[in-house]
Write a structure and sequence with these properties.
single chain; mainly alpha; 2 domains; 5 helices; about 0% strand; elongated
Length: about 90
């Protein structure tokens, strides 16, 4: 008997009982499900505290290529490089 056949032969009550007894099942009540969030790989949820501003900026192709070649998080590394530069070279405001 396959798993599909075995599960198909169970009653709704038996399935419910098995789910409630499963130690890996952390969504047992309607309240649990109401508070659950769905995460789809490759999509980002809202920031807890938005701290960055989305802008458009023009950079040299070799600069972009260099940062992109370092993998995921390349935009954050550009942000960090700019922060470091500003700490070491404060801008003079008019």
């Amino acid at each position: 008997m396959t798993d599909k056949e075995r599960v198909s032969s169970l009653s709704e009550a038996e399935v419910e009982q098995m789910a409630m007894a499963d130690p890996d099942n952390f969504l047992k009540t309607d309240e649990d499900w109401a508070q659950a969030t769905i995460h789809r790989p490759g999509t980002r949820g809202p920031q807890k505290a938005p701290t960055k501003k989305s802008i458009a900026i023009r950079l040299s192709q070799d600069v972009v290529d260099s940062f992109k070649s370092s993998g995921a998080g390349w935009q954050s590394r550009i942000d960090e490089a700019l922060r470091t530069y500003l700490k070491e070279h404060p801008l003079k405001h008019a």
